[in-house]
From TrEMBL, chain A:
Domain LUD: 115-208
UniProt name for this protein: L-lactate dehydrogenase complex protein LldG
Gene3D superfamilies in UniProt: NagB/RpiA/CoA transferase-like
InterPro entries: FTHF_cligase-like_sf, LUD_dom, NagB/RpiA_transferase-like
PANTHER family in alphabetical order: LACTATE UTILIZATION PROTEIN C (PTHR43682:SF1)
Pfam families xrefs: LUD_dom (PF02589)
Organism: Kitasatospora gansuensis
Automatic annotation (TrEMBL), chain B:
Gene3D superfamilies linked: Alpha-helical ferredoxin, NagB/RpiA/CoA transferase-like
Residue ranges of every copy of the Lactate utilization protein B C-terminal domain listed in the record: 400-475
Record domain 4Fe-4S ferredoxin-type: where: 318-385
Location of region: Disordered: 448-479
InterPro entries: 4Fe4S_Fe-S-bd, FTHF_cligase-like_sf, Helical_ferredxn, LUD_dom, LutB/LldF, LutB_C, NagB/RpiA_transferase-like
GO molecular-function terms, A-Z: 4 iron, 4 sulfur cluster binding
NCBIfam families on file: LutB/LldF family L-lactate oxidation iron-sulfur protein
Organism encoding this protein: Kitasatospora gansuensis
The name this protein goes by in its record: L-lactate dehydrogenase complex protein LldF
Domain LUD: 76-288
Lineage: Bacteria, Bacillati, Actinomycetota, Actinomycetes, Kitasatosporales
Amino acid sequence: MSSRETVLARIRAALADVPSEETPADVPVPRAYRRSHTEPGQDTVALFAERVADYRATVTRTHPAELPEAIATALTHRQARRLALPDGFPSDLLPAGDWEWHPEPLGTEALDALDGTVTLAAVGIAVTGTIVLDTGPGQGRRALTLVPDYHLCVIHAGQIADDVPDALARLDPTRPLTFISGPSATSDIELNRVEGVHGPRTLDVIIVETT
Amino acid sequence: MTGQGVVWLGSPSFPEAAREALKDSQLRANLKRATGTIRDKRLAVASELDDWEALREAGAAIKKRTARHLDRYLVQLEESVTAAGGTVHWAADAGEANRIVAELVRATGEREVVKIKSMATQEIGLNEHLAEQGITAYETDLAELIVQLGDDRPSHILVPAIHKNRTEIRDLFTAEMGHWGQPAPDGLGDDPAELAEAARRHLRSKFLTAKVAVSGANFACADSGTVVIVESEGNGRMCLTLPETLITVMGIEKVVPTWSDLEVFLQLLPRSSTGERMNPYTSTWTGTTDGDGPSAFHLILLDNGRTDTLADEVGRQALACIRCSACLNVCPVFERTGGHAYGSVYPGPIGAVLTPQLVGVENAASLPFASTLCGACYDACPVKIDIPEVLAHLRAKVVESKGRTPEALAMKAAATVLDSPRLLGAAQKAASVGGRALARNGRIGRMPGPLAGWSDSRDTPAPPAESFRTWWRKNRETE
């Protein structure tokens, strides 16, 4: 008997008390929990901004016309000059100035030598202050937002979901997803929070609002 | 030492190990501070959600549904992962899982792997097995790195090196990092940020050159085949995306029915574990993706005693554990003894119920007694595992396994009584009369007859004149 058959047979024997006619739906899952922990009428963009900042990420709110300027300001502040450019990042958002934009394909070593990455996002989650990337246009392979030490993420207000259930419903699980809540952090030494061990130590988030 | 497929620390039974640990006042102070800090953070973020109880109910119910139809969900998971380009392997025990991993690594021609912190691979002693096969496994989680460099063992599920202070870590990095790769910088100080930076540099070249990674899994969705890793540092993301081959070892109980079920667990887990609204990084992947991440993905489904646990109708609820470690941080016993005293990789209250079931109660007979049955762990558990109930149940099994002694009957009776509020009330009333008759100075010393063996090693406080339940009924319930 293969181990597959062995394990499955053990499971079936272990569940002798479960009636053979029982289906998963016969085990009720009470879904009385809230779909969202925001209040009706709450400013979820403000909540998102506050919660992202709570993780010691830097949050800027801007409008479409000012976006290239906001990107330039952040890059200047972080002294990030050599940047990975993900496939599909809109060229009209790139600020004019003395930046080196490195398009894909980029090897790991080349990526490691860069200062940072600028990306778009797929979904935001207001209640938890989370950004989700799904490797879609302008977001890059997962390595782009991981290897360089700085990540500047641009998210549109319309991409911000209220809470986790809403966000998961918007996402396609067949794509590789990265949920980011603040910069890389550890508390392994005497429970002192230290930003950045292996992932980017600095996370800047620009929220773009159309109104 | 590996016994019954689960790694043992080689420590003595819990009472002996605990006695030693209790002499270490530094350890106790570290633990008290650590558990207190995490406890407060957890309470603060859990109380932000006014439907916390409803989320716990849903989490418990999803886990119950999964357990009662585990065969179906595992087969569905296998289909989904295979359809997405992954390969699924089944391992009946630790030895088989270790052999599969070693063969997969050998097939790549590599002799090194990078590892994400994983309870399952600690449980089966994977690193030791790989070492015997000439394969070096590098732990990349900061705490696991500290433990590995010190040839030590983890003492906490969430913060495995909590028993080490910053000076000990600095000395360890200085002495050992050079043997494993990039040495620690000269004159390394003991500031946590400086130590984290040394770890970053030490592991950087490993991440950038590793061809094979080994991980565990926090969840795997049967419907989509999506595997989930929840972490903070980014070492997980490094291992999951940069190497060419990814090998994931997952206990069979980690499957959940659907992608959307994660909406419950991604709210419960970070808040219960690190006391954050969300952990810094969660990665999900479904099979392989062209041009992004590993081109080969292997998922190993590990039994290793889990089906024995599933067979116990009371004990099977322990399989619902999502490894958040909230029960450790509220446990008055863990807070004083630390994790090593529990002897297995699963410490604290959940370890006291999980380990004896994975290895057989006769092989871990002292663990179900490593508790005061105060119930704090049950209150803290995000998926409502009734740990005190399972402990009482396992105590009865332990004494039964030693023969049908009067003690066995007493423990079985105790399990029955603790199960029923009505019987408990009656027993407490009887005890307050009988027990007080035996007591001297408020303590009961050596008891007569068959209970002598039990009472030899402990004093029992005399029962109070009235039980808390009686007091409550008299003073509060009518208000």
